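Anyone else keep sequences and structure tokens together like this?

Example one:
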Amino acid sequence: MRVKVRLFARYRELAKVGEESIEVAQGASVSDVVSAILVKYPVLKAHSDEMLVSLNRKRSRGLERVKEDDEVALLPPATGG
């Protein structure tokens, strides 16, 4: 099944892509989607511990199962100043 992945800010710059549709197995979790993106864009692996992840615009801990056409977003931590 296909899932949309969106990369924001620094992650978009590093991967040189802002949005992509990827194929994942039926029953895949949000963590499975993130793992697939890290394989495709290994430059992001150094940031995996700090990534904020959302599923359909709601914060995700990675355990939720994705469905066809869901959206997973990878966001860097917010900084202020």
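And example two:
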Amino acid sequence: MNVEPEDRPRSLKYENVRQEREELLRTQNRIQGLREFVENMRRETKQGENIPHFDPLDGGAEARCLFLFEAAGGKAIRDAGKGSGFVSRNNDDASAEMFFRLNEAVGLDRIRTASWNIVPWALRETGKNRPPRSDEIEEGKVWLGKLISKLPDLKVVVLCGNKSQKATGFLYKEYPHLCVLHAPHPSPQSMLQEGKKEYLKASIKKAARILDAGQSYEGIRAVNTTGEGAEI
């Protein structure tokens, strides 16, 4: 059997890599609190495995930067063995690959980050993903607040895409100590628009600078975004 490297774009399409990641989910100390958080959410929402786990290659409870996307994509759901079961930059889709490559270009170590969605579960109609509704985003904000309580070192939240940016006011009001940045979603339809790839890269770079400098920012840096209904 060919063994594929774990940390490269789209590596979670390989079964051996998924199995290794699942083993880390069970054994990596820094991810255990977030693993329990997801398991509890699965029970309370009755969404079950429609909610993917945090990637144990990321920072887990030690994360200082949270990237918040829109809704769980099909490649993140362990559906009939095809998806990974993780919100991950290693998922087998174009959005995840773009996010991986831009973080790599900036040099923001993933161990300092976590990735999640404003609506933590997949949204599907007639076999296709759909954008989150307002009521689903409101429910997602509740779970976002619970998540932040599990991330004691969190400094920066990067809201990627229009739907995740609906959490801006909530974060600004409830967590004024956090720096909230806006960025485009790394979906193909967003990245094809002029300037969007550069905006996303600049937002990742700004997050890295804040973490490196230990700076405290007040206010919000907003970036005009598109790409509704995209997932990672």
